[in-house]
């Protein structure tokens, strides 16, 4: 099997290997878990406001990406990637290539505000603005629901001249892949399984214990947390860690690496759910 360099939901393996787009974050399962747990934490008024916006999904003109719930909304920005003529501008908004080593001005990795934190702020502002059209506010809801999840995936917050780990070839669980894809799928599945209902049940106690603390901060501080995970775990815990500015060599991802990453992933999913709920409660109340 050829090494997968980028990954799009529903594409063939050949399409995956050749596609130029950056890999997705957390897989659709991760985004849906975050959205469902966030929805549970919305006030009744805000939940009704979310449902009202979603009821206009057919007006978006994206029938290949139907939205009937906040979970669907959270995967919409990935689903519409093939609709390049309308949404190509969103492709660079899913991540922020903060250098793994050293410091750099934000303008170097977020040129003209084209990055996940700035786009999330813009979407929140549109969501709050009752003078914007319903369809504009619905797309803003979809972006917020998705991009807050992206912000909490460590390889959407760091880069080592490897496209967020996409160019780090690895073997994991007997097949070839790349480091970014491993954090989207294998690390996620090892942490919470593949059943969303069971995963959500496992995360609720963690949310109950930490929600009051995790509600704090804003998108930049949340991204900084994810970047710190990339700096302290994602790259240095590899069997063959990279040098600064140079992609890590091809290598095998061990089960120990996946197991040690599991609690990190559970915390990131839970944090994202708490924070998404906070943002929506503030924007739509």
What layout of secondary structure does this protein have?
Layout: H1 13-18, H2 27-40, H3 44-54, H4 70-79, H5 84-87, H6 106-109, H7 116-128, H8 134-151, E1 169-172, E2 175-178, H9 179-184, H10 186-192, H11 196-214, H12 219-234, E3 251-253, H13 255-284
Parallel strand pairs: 1-3
Antiparallel strand pairs: 1-2
Helix pairs in contact: 2-4, 2-8, 2-11, 2-13, 4-8, 7-8, 7-13, 8-13, 10-13, 11-13
Structure description:
The chain is 55% helix and 4% strand. By secondary structure, it is mainly alpha-helical. It has a three-stranded mixed sheet. β1 (169-172) and β2 (175-178) form a beta hairpin. The longest helix is centred in the C-terminal third of the chain and has 30 residues, at 255-284. The model is unreliable at 1-20 (pLDDT under 50).
Which terms summarize this structure?
3 strands, P1 Nuclease, mainly alpha, 4% strand, three-stranded mixed sheet, 285 residues, disordered N terminus, globular
Order of helices and strands: HHHHHHHHEEHHHHEH
Total separate domains: 1
Number of strands: 3
What is the CATH architecture annotation? Answer: Orthogonal Bundle
Q: Give me the oligomer status.
A: single chain
CATH topology: P1 Nuclease
Outline the low-pLDDT stretches.
1-20
Total count of helical runs of at least 4 residues: 13
Give the helix/strand class.
mainly alpha
- Identify the CATH homologous superfamily: P1 Nuclease
- Residue-averaged pLDDT, rounded? 92
Query: How far apart lie the N and C ends?
Result: 50 Å
Q: Order the strands across the largest sheet as they lie in space.
A: 2-1-3
Q: Considering DSSP H and I runs of 4 or more, what fraction of the residues is helical?
A: 55-70%
Strand content range: under 5%
The CATH class assignment is: Mainly Alpha
Which outline best applies?
globular
């Amino acid at each position: 099997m050829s090494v997968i360099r980028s990954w799009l939901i529903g594409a063939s393996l050949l399409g995956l290997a050749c596609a130029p787009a950056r890999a997705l974050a957390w897989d659709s399962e991760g985004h849906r878990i975050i959205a469902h747990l966030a929805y549970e934490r919305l006030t009744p008024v805000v939940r009704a406001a979310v449902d009202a916006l979603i009821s206009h999904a057919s007006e978006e003109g994206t029938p290949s990406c139907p939205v009937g719930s906040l979970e669907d909304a959270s995967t919409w920005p990935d689903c519409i990637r093939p609709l390049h003529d309308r949404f190509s501008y969103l492709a660079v908004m899913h991540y922020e290539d903060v250098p793994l080593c050293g410091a750099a001005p934000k303008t170097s990795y977020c040129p003209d505000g084209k990055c996940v934190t700035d786009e999330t702020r813009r979407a929140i502002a549109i969501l709050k603005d009752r003078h914007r059209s319903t369809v504009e506010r619905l797309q803003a809801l979809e972006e917020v629901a998705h991009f807050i999840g992206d912000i909490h995936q460590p390889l959407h917050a760091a880069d080592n001249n490897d496209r967020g780990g996409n160019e780090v070839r690895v073997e994991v669980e007997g097949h070839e892949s790349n480091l970014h894809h491993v954090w989207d799928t294998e690390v996620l599945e090892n942490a919470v399984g593949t059943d969303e209902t069971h995963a959500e049940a496992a995360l609720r106690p963690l949310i109950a214990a930490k929600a009051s603390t995790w509600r704090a901060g804003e998108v930049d501080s949340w991204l900084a947390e994810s970047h710190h995970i990339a700096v302290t775990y994602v790259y240095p815990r590899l069997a063959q860690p990279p040098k600064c500015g140079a992609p890590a060599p091809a290598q095998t991802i061990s089960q120990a690496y996946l197991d040690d990453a599991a609690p990190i992933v559970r915390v990131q999913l839970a944090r994202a759910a708490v924070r998404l709920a906070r943002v929506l409660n503030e924007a739509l109340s």
